[in-house]
C-alpha cells in the first residue's frame, strides 16, 4: 500500500526515536496489532538504518505497515534510507535538495515547515505532504488558517498527545507522535495501550 492509503487507514505516524535494531520487530508488531500503519525511525536513533532494513524486510512484502525515516537532513541520507528499504522521508526542515533527491528515488517526501513561506518552498521542490513542526505550541487553529492557501496534506508533529490529537485530526491529514507513544525502555504493554488511545482518536 502507498503512504496515502496507509494514512487513510490510520492517520498516525509512530515516531520511534531511540529505537534499536534488537527491539524494532517487537515494537512494530505491537503497533501493528494496535492499528498503527506508518512507522518512522529517526536517523539519530542507534543504528537506525539497520532498524529500517529489518522492519522493511519483515513488513514491506505485505500491506500491514510502511516504514520510513525521520530527521533526514541530507541527500546522501536519503540515498541510504532508500538502500535500506525505507519508503518515506521526513525532515524537520525544508531543504529543497533533500526533497528533490527523495522524489528522484521514488520515495514520499514530507519536509518540515513552520511558516507559509517554507510550506510553499517545499511544495515547489516537489514535496508530497508537509510536516508542521513543532505543532503543539501553535495549535489546530494555525493549521486551519494555513489551509486557506495551502492545499497539500499537512501532518502535525511535535507536542501532539492524546489531549490534542483529535482536534489536530479535524484539520490535518494526520499526526506524528513521538514520546507520547514510544520512548526507549517503555514496556510493550504500555506502548500498545497508548497506541490504542491514538487510534481511537483517529476514528
UniProtKB/TrEMBL annotation:
InterPro entries hit by this protein: Aldlse_KDPG_KHG, Aldolase_TIM, KDPG/KHG_AS_2
Domain of life, source organism: Bacteria
GO molecular function per UniProt: 2-dehydro-3-deoxy-6-phosphogalactonate aldolase activity
UniProt cross-references to PROSITE patterns, sorted A to Z: ALDOLASE_KDPG_KHG_2
SUPFAM superfamilies: Aldolase (SSF51569)
Signal sequence interval, chain numbering: none
Keyword entries, A-Z: Carbohydrate metabolism, Lyase
Alphabetical list of CDD domains matching this protein: KDPG_aldolase (cd00452)
One matching Pfam family: Aldolase
Enzyme Commission code: 4.1.2.21
Family note: Belongs to the KHG/KDPG aldolase family.
Subunit architecture: Homotrimer.
Protein name listed in UniProt: 2-dehydro-3-deoxy-6-phosphogalactonate aldolase
Source organism of the structure: Victivallis lenta
Upper taxonomic lineage: Bacteria, Pseudomonadati, Lentisphaerota, Lentisphaeria, Victivallales
Amino acid at each position: 500500500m502507498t503512504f496515502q492509503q496507509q494514512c487513510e487507514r490510520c492517520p498516525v505516524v509512530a515516531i520511534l526515536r531511540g529505537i534499536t535494531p534488537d527491539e524494532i520487530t517487537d515494537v512494530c508488531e505491537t503497533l501493528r496489532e494496535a492499528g498503527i500503519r506508518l512507522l518512522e525511525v529517526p536517523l539519530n536513533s542507534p543504528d537506525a538504518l539497520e532498524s529500517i532494513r529489518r522492519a522493511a524486510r519483515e513488513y514491506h512484502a505485505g500491506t500491514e505497515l510502511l516504514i520510513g525515516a525521520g530527521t533526514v537532513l541530507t541527500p546522501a541520507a536519503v540515498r541510504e534510507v532508500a538502500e535500506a528499504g525505507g519508503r518515506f522521508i521526513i525532515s524537520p526542515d525544508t531543504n529543497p535538495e533533500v526533497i528533490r533527491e527523495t522524489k528522484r528515488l521514488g520515495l514520499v517526501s514530507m519536509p518540515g515547515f513552520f511558516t507559509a513561506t517554507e510550506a510553499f518552498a517545499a511544495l515547489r521542490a516537489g514535496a508530497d505532504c508537509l510536516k508542521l513542526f513543532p505543532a503543539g505550541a501553535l495549535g489546530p487553529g494555525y493549521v486551519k488558517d494555513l489551509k486557506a492557501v495551502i492545499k497539500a496534506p499537512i501532518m502535525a508533529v511535535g507536542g501532539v498527545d492524546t489531549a490534542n490529537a483529535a482536534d489536530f485530526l479535524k484539520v490535518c491529514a494526520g499526526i506524528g507522535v513521538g514520546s507520547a507513544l514510544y520512548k526507549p525502555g517503555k514496556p510493550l504493554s504500555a506502548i500498545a495501550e497508548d497506541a490504542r488511545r491514538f487510534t481511537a482518536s483517529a476514528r
